[in-house]
Specification:
This protein has 138 residues and is an all-alpha fold. It has 6 helices and no strands. The longest helix is centred in the N-terminal third of the chain and has 26 residues.
């Protein structure tokens, strides 16, 4: 089994799932633009920046095995990107105001679990980057 190849594919998939998970409130909640804006804007970089970093990570993971970049350089970049995504998601989660989180109507009660899901997905991005880097350096 080629761990390096598998780690890059899983990393791309985890990044895609993280983007979908992070974008879910924007895509599924209609009519509460002020709340959504406050929700996505919380923290030092906000959830929107995390989505953008993760999308870049997905492209980087998908192209990691194409041979266009030195594998060690790509591994270092992916580890740094995974750390930024994870730290950004955790900081966003802690900076998220409870008033904003619990102000959504009852039909959107699932959003209370959304920050946890985003952080868990970000852990997957960072872990995939770590596994890829380890497999490159072996």
């Amino acid at each position: 089994m080629n761990v390096r190849h598998l780690a890059s594919r899983i990393g791309a998939l985890v990044c895609f799932l993280t983007v979908i998970a992070a974008a879910a409130p924007f895509l599924l909640i209609d009519g509460y633009a002020d709340l959504i804006g406050a929700y996505y804007g919380a923290g030092p970089i906000g959830l929107t920046a995390i989505v953008l970093f993760t999308a870049v990570g997905g492209v980087a993971f998908a192209s990691a095995e194409r041979g266009n970049v030195d594998p060690v350089t790509m591994a270092g970049g992916l580890v740094a990107l995974g750390a930024v995504v994870l730290v950004g998601a955790v900081l966003w989660w802690f900076a998220l105001d409870d008033t904003v989180l619990y102000s959504f109507p009852r039909e959107y009660r699932w959003i209370e679990w959304h920050p946890t899901a985003v952080v868990v997905a970000a852990i997957g991005v960072a872990a995939s980057a770590g596994v890829y880097a380890r497999s490159v350096l072996e």
